[in-house]
Amino acid sequence: MDVLTENFSLYGKGFLGTVELTVYASLLALALGFIMASFRVAPVGSLRVLGAVWVTLLRNTPLTLLFFAVLLGLPRFGLVLPFQLFSVLALGCYTSAFICEALRSGINTVPLGQGEAARSLGMTFRQSLGAVVLPQAFRSVIPPIGSTLIALAKNSAIAGAFSVTELLGTYKTLNELGYSIIWTFVWIAVGYLIITLSISALFNALEQRWGVAR
After folding, report:
1. Distance between CA 48 and CA 27 in Å, rounded?
2. Rounded distance between C-alpha atoms, residue 32 and residue 1, angstroms
3. Considering only CA atoms, which of 205, 89, 105 is closest in space to residue 156?
4. What is the pLDDT of residues 84-126, one digit of tens each?
5. How far is CA 149 from the centre of its chain?
6. Of the candidates 110, 68, 105, which has an alpha carbon nearest to the alpha carbon of residue 87?
7. CB atoms within 10 A of CB 169
8. What does the alpha-carbon distance between residue 123 and residue 97 come to, in Å, rounded to a whole number?
9. Of the candidates 100, 99, 126, the residue with the CA atom closest to the CA atom of residue 44
10. Backbone angles phi, psi at 39, to 5 degrees
């Protein structure tokens, strides 16, 4: 218990760092995932190809390699940003591929007649997707999106290897100070548990409110 009480500010800073990474990367992933899912079902062939390439590349690239590419590669092309922002970019883009596929699977559960009926009323593809298809698809994809964002929260630990303040990285300082490595990791695990359970509770509430009735 001493390791927590004597280093509460250090744990708190790491915990807040992980929460910030999770929140910002989740928002980016949801936005990009929505856009790419729209591309994947668009009537324009070039957009479908772009969406498919995005998903294929990111889903099949190890996240650690993507971190190296973004945090160490982009500055070589003159794009210099804080490492935390780079980490959000890497996490968000990577996770967006999984969000995209979750949304696309939900879109595919909506009967084709729904979209055809919307278009027969004069709606554009964007209007029918936003007003008719996606609201129905969202109900079935709440659980998989929640699971994906929980995975994002745990994946944020990789950012600590690139000098970004986050929860897992606190073990380095505490280990140098001579604290028990076991208890150090116990409290780190508790911190991640609080974050993941919070995300789980949020999506459980969303599912109860808007999810498909069982």
Report:
1. 23
2. 42
3. 89
4. 899 999 999 999 999 999 998 888 877 777 767 777 777 777 7
5. 5
6. 68
7. 21
8. 28
9. 126
10. -60, -40
DSSP labels, 81-136:
--HHHHHHHHHHHHHHHHHHHHHHHHHHHS-HHHHHHHHHTT--HHHHIIIIIHHH
Amino acid identity of 83? Answer: F
Q: For residue 126, what are the CA distances in angstroms to 51, 97, 210?
A: 16, 21, 22
Element (H, E) at 75: none
**CA–CA separation, 148 vs 186, rounded Å?**
24
Residues 6 or more apart whose CB falls under 8 angstroms from that of 2 comprise 179
Residue 5 CB contacts under 8 Å (≥ 6 apart), including other chains? none
Burial class for 128, CB neighbours closer than 10 Å (0-12, 13-18, 19+): buried
pLDDT score of 213 more than 70: no
130-168: per-residue pLDDT in tens? 777 777 788 889 999 999 999 999 999 999 888 888 988
Query: Tens digits of per-residue pLDDT, 16-51?
Result: 999 999 999 999 999 999 999 989 988 888 999 999
**pLDDT the model gives residue 79:** 83
pLDDT tens sequence across 168-205: 888 777 777 777 788 888 888 999 999 999 999 999 99
